[in-house]
Amino acid sequence: MATRYVMQRDTRGWRTQVWLSFVLAVLASGVGVMFLPSQDLDRAFLAVGFFFCLFAAFAVAKTVRDNRDGQIDTASWVMTVWVALAAAVSLTGWGLWRMNIGEWQKGYMVVSWLFLISATFTLAKTVRDKHEADLMDHSARADQHTQPAQL
Question: Checking CA distances to 67, which of 35, 93, 100, 104 falls within 20 to 30 Å?
Fold first, then answer.
């Protein structure tokens, strides 16, 4: 028996808030990296670490959602995305910890980095929810047109 889901669409306000939060997180992280009083190599490391975290978070969100009803991805793929996220977070955290900058600057970078990761997961879920709701609507409309008229 197929699993049935009830899909409630997100409001326009929620979708707007999610997108604004994501853009704000990217901007806060980017501005923090650009104006960090540190060496160019440290800023480059941090930028790569933030992008690594961003893309790893999207990969984990997609993998978890794709496998919610049973594993469709290989165990190697599932392990790879989780290891990538752990590596991204660990290495970026290590880089931030060892940087020779003030505590308030480290605090700003940590908060913007965590905001970026959180906003990424929320955006991934919101986009996927919309996609699945659209598929369900399309399927329901197709079923209505293909069912014979009841007498």
Answer: 93
